[in-house]
Amino acid sequence: MKRVNEEELEYDYDDYGAALLAGEPFTGEAIDKSGDVVVSLTTFVGGREDGPKKEWYESGQIRSEGQVSRVTGAIGVWSEWNESGQLVERKELDEEGNVVSWRQWDEEGVLIKDEAYDPLW
Questions:
Q1: Is 107 within 8 Å of 82 (Cβ atoms)?
Q2: What's the rounded Cα separation, in Å, for the pair 104 and 29?
Q3: Are 31 and 19 in contact (CB under 8 A)?
Q4: Domain count, the chain
Q5: What is the pLDDT of residue 17?
Q6: Which run of H or E residues covers position 67?
Q7: Is the dihedral of CA 74, 20, 34, 36 positive or negative?
Q8: Which distant-in-sequence residues (6+ apart) come within 8 Å of 96 by Cβ?
Q9: Range of the domain at 32
Q10: Whole-model pTM?
Q11: Whole-angstrom distance, CA of residue 109 vs CA of residue 111
């Protein structure tokens, strides 16, 4: 899979923000760096976000990760961590991007939110 630096991409806002490389819709992974540290990775297919998406703190600690569908946006399980590595949020979305469940934890790892949603509402 082709991998480029985020700054190599251009965005066609007349085409809903399609990512372009050398004027063509980009397929591959785009990374963003802070100095020498990769802080995000976004997967594109045909100029649209589609596939894994991850972010890291500058320390290298994972910040968030999930899956994106070029049709509906965020899908599947999305997780977020704080800088010390503690899981602070996990959402599950169906194939249409509707939230199915949502959990949050405080800084001590205590569950403070645990909700399930009916995607038909």
A1: yes
A2: 29
A3: no
A4: 1
A5: 87
A6: strand 62-69
A7: positive
A8: 72, 75, 119
A9: 3-116
A10: 0.88
A11: 6
